[in-house]
Amino acid sequence: MSAKNKSKQQKKRFSISAKMYLSVTLTVIAVAVGTAVFAYNVSAAQINSYFKRLAYNSAENVASLVDSGFYARLKEVAESEDYQKVRELAEKEEDEDLVRQYLTEAGIWDDYEKNLEFLENYHAHMADIKYLYCVVFGEKDAVKDMYLIDDDEESALYYATGYMEEREKEFYGIDSSVRIEPTITHGRWGWLVSAYAPVFDEDGKVICQIGCDISMDDVMDERQHYLVIITISTLILVILALTGAWLFSSKLIVSPLNRLSAEMKKFDPGEDKNYETAHVVSMDYRYSDEIYDIYITVKAMQIHIVDYINRLYVARQDKQKIITSLEKAESDIKDRDAQIGEISQKAYIDPLTNVGNKTAYEQKAEILTKKIKDKTAEFAVVMIDLNDLKMVNDRYGHRAGDSYIKGCCQTICMIYGTFWVYRIGGDEFAVILEGISYKERSELFEKLQNAFYESADNKAVSPQARYSASCGMAEYDPEKDESFENVFRRADKNMYENKKRFKKKHGSYR
Q: Among residues 195, 222, 249, which one ends one of the domains?
């Protein structure tokens, strides 16, 4: 792959950290904006509800106090053809005296003045009301409605009484025989909440509607101001929340993943390399979460790889020794047989589990004994004794018992790797910890115990697959331990203490 193609591939990469920051950012913004919109809408709905209720209560109060008989007579006069001709003439000549004279001749002018005065007085004592009037709604499909009385002092009589005005679009299709719900409109008179309450005659029929308009211009201005404030507050909240979320995500997720990725890239296994020189991942990570599980799994895999390469290297060396020995012994059959017998005796691998056998373990013990004498020793011994192997053999046969031994061994190797694990008896294993494994001995030992606890209690599998073992660990103490055997005995003692506790809890057979 060319450098140019690699560069393109790197640019297209969308890392986990970028995905994490993006998801956190989108979540915080969505929650903050959603909360702000909800708060704004709730506040606006409450204010609208208050003003609608105020407008309707005022209209209903006026409707209950007016003279319904007068409004019935005024409606009859205003709807007559003669009056409409007079009103149109008065509008054309801009002479409202023509309307006044007609109403006087109809005998309702005095009552007209009294009812108009009542509306004006009521309006004067209700500061929130902008317009107070009486209107006769037409049929549902009508586009115009007639005004009977309007307390607006600037409105001439020929406009205030009997005038047909275009219906507001919000009231298209209105049914005046039932309650008309208050409506908020924005038109040539500004922001208004309009409510209508019916005036009934003696037979309970609707004569007209008392209309009450309350100005909401100041309310809408304040609402715009509130919108600006809540927008700024939301931006500040988003910035603070994102800062906290990013710091939290970086510390607990992104940074550990980046460190783990960097450690994995250092891994360089090779022949005759130990865990340190091969750069097996090593992190100071104390949280028990999925990242820790990934870290332990990757570490176990890398240890397996190093162990496998070292075994191949040792096998290749042993093979070369065998070939050399055979070449030297070709002239003498007896010497060759003796050499082959000697080589066979030095086989260090347990044939069932493929880990070190007792011979390999004893050889390792001799090496550590020399280190103890040289005062260069630093190691720990983990003793492991399988639980319930006899039960598996008795119930399921020795083939199942062999499978049980291998399953327990695999559990051990998943934690420590195979290089330092030895089978020293039929159901006994030992692990010798040095280097990185020694430094992390406490965490690894806890991981081993938890693995066997979980397996032993796993009811989802058959008893022969519930791998269980008792474990004990001891560390070499240069001030107390004169030999490797001292450390072994302490580890063995700790293991048997754990086995007693296991049997006390589970019994001899689970």
A: 222
The verdict on residue 246 lying in a domain is: no
Q: 431 is in which domain, residue-wise?
A: 347-506
Q: Which 3-state string (H, E, C) describes 297-348?
A: HHHHHHHHHHHHHHHHHHHHHHHHHHHHHHHHCCCCHHHHHHHHHHHHHCCC
Q: What whole-number distance in Å separates Cα of residue 425 and Cα of residue 433?
A: 19
What span, in angstroms and rounded, lies between the C-alpha atoms of 456 and 503? 12
pLDDT in tens for each of the 510 residues of the chain? 455 555 454 556 677 778 777 888 888 899 888 888 888 888 889 999 999 999 999 999 998 999 999 999 999 999 999 999 999 999 999 999 999 999 999 999 999 999 999 988 998 888 889 889 999 988 888 888 899 998 877 788 888 898 888 888 877 878 877 888 898 988 777 899 999 999 998 888 999 999 999 988 888 888 888 888 989 988 898 899 888 888 887 777 888 778 778 878 888 887 666 777 878 777 776 666 777 778 678 777 777 686 778 677 666 765 665 455 445 545 544 544 444 444 444 578 999 999 999 999 999 999 999 999 999 999 999 999 999 899 999 999 999 999 999 999 999 999 998 988 999 999 999 999 999 999 999 999 999 999 999 998 888 888 888 999 999 999 999 998 989 999 999 999 999 999 998 888 876 554
**Which element (helix H / strand E) includes 211?**
strand 206-215
Based on the domain organization, do 32 and 177 belong to the same domain? yes
SS (H, E, C) 386-436: ECCHHHHHHHHCHHHHHHHHHHHHHHHHHHHCCCCEEECCCCEEEEEECHH
Say how far apart CA 302 and CA 296 lie, in whole Å.
10
In a domain, 474, yes or no: yes
The CATH number of residue 424's host domain is 3.30.70.270
Residue 348 token pair: 């260090």
pTM of the model: 0.51
For the sheet with 469-475, list strands across it.
421-423, 428-433, 380-386, 469-475
**For residue 119, what are its two tokens?**
């509306």
Calpha distance 425→284 (Å, rounded):
35
Nearest to 300 by CA among 384, 421, 405: 421
Structurally, the chain folds into a number of domains equal to 2
259 part of a folded domain: no
Q: Domain for residue 89, yes or no?
A: yes
Boundary of a domain, candidates 190, 222, 254: 222
Tell me how crowded residue 44 is: count the other CB atoms within 10 A of its CB: 15
